[in-house]
Amino acid sequence: MVGGNVAAMKKTNPSFLNGVPELLVLRLLSSREMYGYQIVEEIRIRTGAALSFGEGCIYPYLHYLEAEKQVSSQRREVDGRNRNYYKLAARGRKRLEELTSEWNRVTAGVAQLMGVQHA
Amino acid sequence: MRDFIGTLRLRLVELGCPITHVRRMVREVADHREDLEQAAVSEGLSGADAEARADALLGDPLVLAEHLMTALRRSSWWGRHHIVAFCLLPLLAYPILWALLLLCQMALGFALGYGWDLKKLHVAVNNPVTFYHLSMVFQCTDYVAIALVALLFCWLARRSAVSLKWMAISCAICSLAAVITYAKIGPHSFSVGFSMNNHLHMPWFRGAIPLLVAGAVHVFQRRTARRFPEKIAV
Fold first, then answer.
1. Mean pLDDT (whole number) for A34-48
2. Domain ranges within chain B, ordered by starting residue
3. pLDDT at position B3
4. Are A86 and A67 in contact (CB under 8 A)?
5. What are phi and psi of A93, to 5 degrees?
6. b/e for B167-179, b at 16 or more Cβ within 10 A?
7. Quick check: A36 contacting B, CB < 8 Å?
8. What is the pLDDT of residues B27-67, one digit of tens each?
């Protein structure tokens, strides 16, 4: 029964559950270009460790976003270390706007419901 | 360092990941591991403890390799749509690609052998000995066209990092298509088409070509996988 409900939810609104990591990564990259370790650390620190990416899991995700042309990467040497820096591409910026508006809509709806229940 | 990164690299190669992607993925994970180690050392851990912590945080390299490969497969249209790309498309695209390649090769042969001169070609085909040789060349051209189409699907399968199964399926479909298509040449005629009873010389060999190509690509892939760890170091 629970499985059926989850499946139904995913079918009607897949981004409700799956879009959060994408939103976080795109949001972080919208301010400056970053490398994988930095992104994981930033998410952990800025969410007060409430959310965290598995250390290795960020790379499949970044590669996927790059293939979707939402981010671009460049290998550069900074402070004697060579790293792949990721930055937001035009398509990623557009996707970020979509995800942000979707996120705001969902959180507003949830907040409204919670407010009604508390009242 | 060698154990975690070495295991990851080997697993990626075993899973059929293209070498350029292996290099990049391994390099990034190695950078990340170094960052984790540095962070642990700055917290006061010893070198060995820092290394162990970095490994623990990164998790199982075999699982990580699977995640990386899944992302790679999902990143291409071919990787996302296996059935359409490696079952349906070979069936639909094979006759077109094969006929095009055949015509291109014939045009190239005509240009190189006879300098686009139709009179020279007429003289050649009216001579039984020359025509016999030309028909042999034509047959080889047909085989090359079949092999090239199969090779194209093998290349797409390899590039999109899908499993060997999909490469084999696409080549099996090419094989079936090769059996039911034919190309014939006469002194003053040329025809291509579909037929279940085409009376070609060695029709089974046409069908075997895509399977031989798939086998050769698989052997090449395995040899690369065996040699790769010694060739590349992070």
1. 91
2. 2-75, 78-220
3. 82
4. no
5. -65, -40
6. bbbbbbbbbebbb
7. yes
8. 999 999 999 999 999 988 888 899 999 988 888 999 999 98
Q: Which of A47, A7, A6 is nearest to A23 (CA)?
A: A47
Structure token pair of residue A2: 């629970």
Three-state secondary structure readout of B101-116: HHHHHHHHHHHHHHCC
CATH architecture of structural domain A2-118:
Orthogonal Bundle (1.10)
d(CA B86, CA B154): 9
Beta bridge partners of B192: B183
Please give the Cα distance from B181 to A15 (Å, whole number).
Answer: 46
| pTM check: above 0.80 | no
Among A60, A83, A84, the residue with its CB nearest the CB of B68 is A60
- Give per-residue burial for A19-28: e unless 16+ CB within 10 Å, then b: beebbbbbbb
- Give B221's pLDDT tier (boundaries 50, 70, 90): confident
Hey, of A37, A41, A44, A71, which one would you mutate to test binding to chain B, going by the most B CBs within 10 A of its CB?
Answer: A37
Q: What is the CA radius of gyration of chain B?
A: 25
Number of H helices, E strands in chain A: 5, 2
CA separation, residue A70 to residues A34, A47, B31, B75 (Å): 14, 23, 23, 12
- pLDDT computed for residue B114 by the predictor: 84
Strands A81-88 and A71-78: antiparallel
* Confidence at A2, pLDDT banded by 50, 70, 90: very low
Question: Regarding predicted confidence, which is higher, B140 or A116?
Answer: B140
Tens of pLDDT along B86-127? 999 999 999 999 999 999 999 998 898 888 888 888 888 888
Q: Say whether residue A61 is in contact with chain B using an 8 A CB cutoff.
A: yes
The CA R_g of chain A, rounded to the nearest whole Å, is 17
Interface test with B, best of A57, A72, A77 (most B CBs within 10 A): A57
Those residues whose C-beta lies under 8 Å from the C-beta of residue B49, and which sit 6 or more positions away, are B40
pLDDT reported for residue A8: 38
